[in-house]
């Protein structure tokens, strides 16, 4: 192809030099990044141990960091598997122990350098189906499933997910979401900075949230929820309801045939109800008191910063 009239001649050598410089610089950046990653995650260590167990005992698991998953299984033992990945210094320094005690199994994960090394820790524990849990981590998510027993789970900075459990659930997070589903037993859920979702529970539910929304569906028991910074949605329940929000709307779904006594008020929005309330006259749009179908199940709702809607399903 000949030269293009009116344009400066194409300098292949200059262009190639520029490309080579760019590739050299870009390639060096990639290599540097890869080296950094390989240094930060240069080691991996696996801990495995199996200990005899009897139904009705307790798993005590306390870790300075890491995610923890506990599953119920048809076992006569507690099996512990933990993987530690990261810098060589961090991996070699993280200490894991598992011992058999008088009331069950105790597992400890200790980080002597207290987070100064970049490591990832993951616990997978399997226990007999009838077993109590007392599980705590300073910084990671918790997951429990398929267990019958009393459960205490707390994390300083991660989520909690609990499914298919029988027994009381005491769940607390310093800054993550909580999901609870298919539970036969009372539930207490508390978080300092995430959402709470509780569905299909046969038992009383109490949920407290410092900074997010709360959803409670299909609860066969009393529902007591409070959030300082989010919305509340309750549906499919058959027990007493107490809902308080300091910064969001409240929506409650009830059967058309419900017999209820309502006391609902809002500091910054309207209160409405799909069902006829006796007395039918509201003194003001932000407050509603009265009975539905002759009165019965108490429904208390208050928000400082939104509307309250009681909807008929």
Name of the level-1 CATH class of the domain at 43-242: Mainly Beta
In the predicted model, the low-confidence regions spanning at least 5 consecutive residues are 1-10, 12-16, 22-40
Oligomer: single chain
SSE arrangement, N to C: HEEEEHEEEEEEEEEEEEEEEEEEEEEE
Strand content: over 45%
- Summarize the amount of helix as a percent range: 10-25%
Category from helices, strands and their pairing: mainly beta
- Going across the major beta sheet, what is the strand order? 1-4-7-3-9-11-13-15-17-19-21-26-23
Rg, alpha carbons = 28 Å
The number of helical elements comes to: 2
The gross shape turns out to be elongated
Summarize model confidence as the mean pLDDT: 88
Strand element count: 26
CATH architecture of the domain at 43-242: 3 Solenoid
What separation lies between the terminal Cα atoms?
76 Å
Predict the CATH topology of the domain at 43-242: Pectate Lyase C-like
Q: Main β-sheet: number of strands, strand sense, barrel status? A: 13 strands, mixed
Describe the structure.
With 313 residues, this protein is mainly beta. It has helices at residues 12-40, 88-93, and strands spanning 43-52, 58-63, 67-73, 77-86, 95-100, 104-110, 119-128, 132-137, 142-145, 151-155, 160-166, 169-173, 178-184, 187-191, 196-202, 205-209, 214-219, 223-227, 232-235, 241-245, 250-254, 260-266, 271-273, 287-292, 297-303, 308-312. Helix content is 11%, strand content 51%. It has a domain at 43-242: 3 Solenoid (Pectate Lyase C-like). The N and C termini lie far apart (76 Å). It has a 13-stranded mixed sheet. A 13-stranded mixed sheet has the order 5-6-2-8-10-12-14-16-18-20-25-22-24, with no helix packed on it. The radius of gyration is 28 Å and the shape is elongated. Residues 1-10, 12-16 and 22-40 have low confidence and may be disordered.
């Amino acid at each position: 192809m000949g030269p293009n009239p009116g344009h400066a001649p194409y300098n292949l050598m200059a262009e190639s030099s520029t490309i080579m410089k760019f590739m050299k610089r870009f390639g060096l950046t990639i290599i540097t990044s890869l080296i950094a990653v390989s240094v930060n995650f240069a080691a991996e260590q696996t801990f495995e141990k199996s200990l005899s167990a009897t139904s009705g005992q307790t798993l005590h698991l306390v870790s300075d960091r890491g995610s923890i998953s506990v599953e119920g299984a048809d076992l006569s033992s507690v099996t512990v598997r933990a993987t530690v990945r990261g810098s060589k210094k961090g991996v070699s320094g993280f200490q894991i122990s598992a011992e058999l005690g008088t009331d069950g199994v105790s597992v400890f994960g200790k980080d002597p350098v207290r987070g100064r090394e970049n490591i990832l820790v993951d616990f997978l524990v399997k226990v007999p189906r009838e077993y109590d849990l007392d599980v705590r981590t300073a910084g990671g998510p918790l997951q429990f499933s398929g267990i019958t027993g009393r459960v205490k789970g707390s994390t300083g900075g991660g989520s909690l997910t609990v499914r298919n459990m029988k027994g009381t659930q005491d769940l607390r997070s310093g800054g993550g979401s909580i999901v609870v589903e298919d539970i036969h037993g009372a539930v207490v859920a508390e978080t300092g900075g995430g959402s709470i979702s509780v569905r299909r529970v046969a038992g009383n539910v109490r949920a407290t949230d410092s900074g997010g929304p709360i959803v409670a569906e299909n609860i066969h028991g009393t529902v007591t929820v409070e959030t300082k910074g989010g919305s509340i949605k309750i549906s499919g329940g058959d027990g007493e309801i107490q809902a308080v929000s300091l910064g969001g709307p409240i929506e409650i779904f009830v059967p058309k045939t419900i017999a209820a006594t309502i006391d609902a008020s809002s500091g910054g929005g309207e209160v409405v109800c799909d069902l006829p309330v006796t007395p039918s006259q509201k003194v003001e749009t932000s407050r509603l008191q009265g009975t539905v179908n002759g009165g019965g199940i108490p429904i208390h709702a208050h928000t400082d910063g939104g509307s309250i809607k009681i909807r008929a399903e």
